[in-house]
Structures are given as C-alpha cells and as structure tokens.
C-alpha cells in the first residue's frame, strides 16, 4: 500500500456542532483550568457557523450532522447548571439533563480518526482518548458510515490500543510527517502533574496504520501547555513554494526543535512568535485549499507571514467556542483525505444544510450560568 501522506489534507472537513450546554471547562489544558460561571452557547454556535462559512469561502466544505442528545436542551431559553451538574431552564425546577452526560469536548473534532481512501475502500483508525471523551467515538463512526454510503466506499474501522488523541498530533510536511506526543516528567516538568496526552506508541501505531515509511516519520515531544501538536504548528502548503511547517519551537521538549528542523530542513520551518503561539493559538490555524482559517486574535505579523507563503488568511471569532477552553479553528475541524469523492448534494455537507444549520441557532440558549460548586476538583491540567 502507498503512504497516505500525499492525501492527508483534503478540502472536506468533518466538524461537530457545540452542545447547547456549552461549558468549556474540563481541566485538561491550561485555558480550561480557569472556571467561568457564565457562558453563551448561542454565541459559541455562531462562532462554529463562522468556521463552516470560512471553510466554504476557501473552497472547501464542512461535513456534520445534528445530534439527538441535544434536543432536550434546545428551545428552553437560558439554562443553569447546579453544583451536582443538573441542567435546568433558568428559574425552573425541571431537570433537563446532567453535565456528566454532556459531551462538552465534542467540538474538538481534530481529535478524530485518521481516514485513508484507497480505491473504493475507506479505512479509519479511531483515536484513544482520555476517559471523559470516549463517548465521542460513535459520532465519527456514524459520520464515516454516512460518508461511505453516500460515496460508495467499503468502510473498515480499526482501533488504536495506545493513547492517541487523533489527528491533532499529525502534521504532514511534504513527504514527511511530524508526530507529537507527551512523556511524563518531560511534558509537565516544573509545573506539577498534568494529564498525559498522546503517547509515542500511539502515534507510532497511527503512522503504521497509514503506511508511513519509517524514514518519513519525525517524532517530537510536547511541553506543557501545548497539549497537542496542533497547538504548536501546522503543515502548510504554500502556493509559491515547497511545503513548510509553520511552527513554534517553544512548544517542544529539549532538543526536539533542532531534531525537527534537521529532519525537515531549516528552510521548511516558518516561525511563530511566542504570544501568537501561546496566547492566540496561531499554530491551531487550519489551511483549506489556498486559504487559512486563523484565530481572530493573531497578530498582523503572523498573517503577513501567511500571505508571504501565497496563502489568504481568514480570521474567525472564537471567544466563546474556544477562548475559555483553549483552541482554534484547527481544533474544530478534521481533515478528510484529498482523494475522497463525495457527491455535491450529500446530506452531510454544510453547503446542503446551511439553512437548517443557521435556523438552529435560535434554539440555543443565549446564556448558561454555572454554579462555582460544579467546578470543584476540576483544576488539573
């Protein structure tokens, strides 16, 4: 089988709408260590719509579906969450659900599977996530089944037995791929115990799945607070030159920045400044065709850099969707392979369901208020 690397970056991207009870506070990264008591799920949904619209403006399309689990929380006005996680309409004693059953992290679709298309066969390797996100897997299985049915592919799905947090730790640069992972004692050196993320075994298994040649693999350790590779860098496809890694060296451990530069070539590294990388999530930008979705807070110097690569930046607002949890446009999107063929009218396409998606925003609560007691014990990064 041929390596999947040439087809990793397609213009069709799987997304997942945020939950109506959007509480971006899980405690598993440095932004979400801050407990907020008020949220606006409707604004988060608007920001999600802006990502879908930006993908279209770049010449791509978002793939998604609505979820039955959301229905009890829609059209009920503003919501409240008490210390036990019970969700109620504001001013009512009626319990609509509990936060323990709400997949607050599901919008982070970059943690989804590696999908490979070979002829009329579609293969997928599922991520192996932290325990509180394991319930997200059925959405990807269902989406892939619908895509395969619509396009006439035979689908097979494999499991990764090792901790691997999906495509957020995969960055393809030409004929090489940077595979990021964490090591206890290195990742969290000097900052106290933190939740470990993808492992070396997990990213190696992913590379094996995609038939990546051994000499094409570039391994790199992350350091806190960079919990995934896509908070450090992204693989860029300039229109005026060879592939590049738009990269923040401070996100890697020890001598790993040098190892990455040596493996790719110094000329392939395009630097991201510290503030853009750490505070604005510039590494979490997402290229679609010749456009790049960037967090709206990045500096003009960063967007100038992208324009110098022949790419067109598109700023997207992310205050509610990711500003309180940590993330950017790449977090909300999962590349489908470039050789995937999907009918233009397929019902999973945003372009086919835009009106439905925009009408649904009115059902999302404008305000969600959370008791401070709910966040007790959720401070570990």
Helix content: 10-25%
So what's the overall shape? Answer: globular
Unreliably modeled segments: 26-34
CATH architecture: 5-stranded Propeller
Q: How many H/I helical runs?
A: 7
Q: Please give the CATH class.
A: Alpha Beta
How would you characterize this protein structure?
- The chain is 20% helix and 20% strand.
- It is built from seven helices and 20 strands.
- The longest helix is centred in the first third of the chain and has 17 residues, at 41-57.
- It has one domain: Succinylarginine dihydrolase (L-arginine/glycine Amidinotransferase, Chain A, 5-stranded Propeller).
- By secondary structure, it is of the alpha/beta class.
- A hairpin with a 2-residue loop joins strand 7 (114-118) and strand 8 (121-126).
- Strands 2-20-4-5-6 form a five-stranded mixed beta sheet, with no helix packed on it.
How would you concisely characterize the structure shown here?
With 381 residues, the chain is of the alpha/beta class.
How would you summarize the topology of this molecule?
Blueprint: E1 12-14, E2 38-39, H1 41-57, E3 61-63, E4 79-81, E5 86-89, E6 97-98, E7 114-118, E8 121-126, H2 137-151, E9 154-159, E10 170-173, E11 176-181, H3 200-209, E12 217-221, E13 233-236, E14 244-247, H4 256-264, E15 269-271, H5 274-279, E16 286-288, E17 291-295, H6 300-308, E18 312-316, E19 334-335, H7 350-360, E20 368-370
Parallel strand pairs: 1-3, 4-20, 8-9, 11-12, 14-15, 17-18
Antiparallel strand pairs: 1-19, 2-20, 4-5, 5-6, 7-8, 10-11, 13-14, 16-17
Helix pairs in contact: 1-7
